[in-house]
Amino acid sequence: MAKANEQVSAARRARHGGILTLVFAVISILWISPMLVVFLNSFKRKAYIFRYPFGFSANSLSDGWDKFIAGAQQIFCGTLNYKNGLKATNFISCFGNSLFITVFSVLAIILCCSMCAWYIVRVHSVFSKCMYLMCLFSMIVPFQMVMFTLSKFANMLHLSNPVGIIVVYLGFGAGLSVFMFTGFVKGISLEIEEAAMIDGCNPLQTFFLIVFPILKPTVVTVAILQAMWIWNDYLLPSLVLNINRYKTIPIAVQYLKQSHGQIDWGAMMAVLVLAILPIVIFYMICQKYIIEGVLAGAVKG
What we know:
By secondary structure, the chain is mainly α.
């Protein structure tokens, strides 16, 4: 009787698992379909983008070989969108600015926030508790409340450049990062650090040689979340940077809008594909660490 019940339960779990797999597969297709549409339309002329946004041409390939050739020619001609987009946006320069800002902002956030979290956990004082509360408070303050003041102070402190905006991103990214690092550091055994100090390590050596390698799952998670935010951010660079000299990719895409609201949609689709591709590759490489890091920072301690 018990064996029969187990078989029924196993069959039920398998059936439910199949249903959930189907549901999540449909949801995944819905999520990635906008990116597929953008990629597809990046090879079309403007007229075809509006007429046939979800296909290559007006006719099916079964209508004849001539229709297939016409569709292939249309796709080939659409590759000019990439050339026009690169030229119109000065994409190489914008890509360099975005890459520089993203990489060094993420490095600054990881280094400073991990050290801050270690200090908060290990040093029990009023100052450390207040610092932690301030980081948590920064997570709930709407950006719209500080955007104009931030723009003014950034101009006064001469932060309107790719190096200066790194400081701004460090401030805005510290709240979530410190919160995640703090949760993970609480789960690290204090005896490991004490043993390192007995062997002659100073606090900096203890952190970089002992603690920081243990933080790898959370480091990768923070890097992914912050890189996706900074790479795709439009509002903060538009407020802080001198966009006449320094443009990031999101700002460059906006500049494809011409006078009277005219937009070269083909070039815009092509630039969007080039903008999406690096961060998608980075996410796919590091995705296996993100759930591990989030769970570790949420439940430890």
